[in-house]
Hints:
Elements: E1 5-7, H1 16-32, E2 35-39, H2 45-59, H3 63-68, E3 78-81, E4 98-103, H4 118-145, E5 163-169, E6 184-187, E7 193-198, E8 204-207, E9 213-215, E10 222-227, H5 229-234, E11 244-246, E12 255-262, E13 269-270, E14 288-289, H6 290-302
Parallel strand pairs: 1-2
Antiparallel strand pairs: 2-10, 3-4, 4-5, 5-12, 6-11, 7-10, 7-12, 8-9, 8-11, 13-14
Amino acid sequence: MKVPAIDFSSYDEDQRDSMVAIGDKLDSALSEIGFMSISNLGISTELLDQVFAASRAFFKGDASVKAASAYASAAENFGYQGLCEEHLDPDKPADLKETFTMRNLLQHPVDDNRWPSPEFRDLMISFYQACLVGAYKVQRVMASTLDLDPNYFVQHHSGENVSLRLLYYPASGVDQIAPDQLGAGAHTDYGLLTLLFQDDVGGLEVLDMENQWQAVDYVESAIVVNSGDLLERWTNGQYRSTLHRVKPKIGHRERFSIVMFVDPDSATSVSVLESCISESNPARFEPITAGEHVQQRIKASHQGNFPG
């Protein structure tokens, strides 16, 4: 399945025609499927390659280093989690993946002893900053398309709930796979937008309008971007928060991916936008704070494994 492709090379905040052209494609993609493939967002290939290399070295490295980086709480949302420690679909068996999650990196203590190394820390902060700048470009296009001030979404995303996550789906090392067990269980994302950087192994599937799972094609040098729950609420369902999952890679090639979850600051009140309300489509969602929604979803995915 090819998701709609959008080229940001013509992005120019001073050129209305360029912003409108990109915005029209974005509006169509998020309205129809909730997923798109973005190229030329300004994140260097060299930096991305370095992050993939550091991720591979960490996950394939010493178990004691991973244990020293252990995740402590959903409220903090930082650190390493091993196989079967997360249930993205709480009704199904735990996910066959390892993760290293890094929330609010611009404010996270640089002396946290869970960092695998200072070099790892500095690299992840640099990549986080680059992804955040790219995410702001998408937010400005989207805001303009929705008849909002260009910085409407940017102002609510300082980084407090923006999380960078490294993921590893092993090809072997698990003796049994339970029925319906996946690399990442079927779920929607929690916040505004998600940026996904993946290798060529594949495994990501999206539930289409006919309730059929469709494999998302790998596109070199492109970022898969999808809308989350809070964007769906803000737009009164105009932009879809679409179910997706990752197949387990047991017995096949291992898979590495990198995700940037662009979630609003906790105190942000998410209410349906006036531009998305009409007589035929009244407001479908009650207001909620971003922090309340995100924490509810994170805690549900851990099923009591970690404190709040």
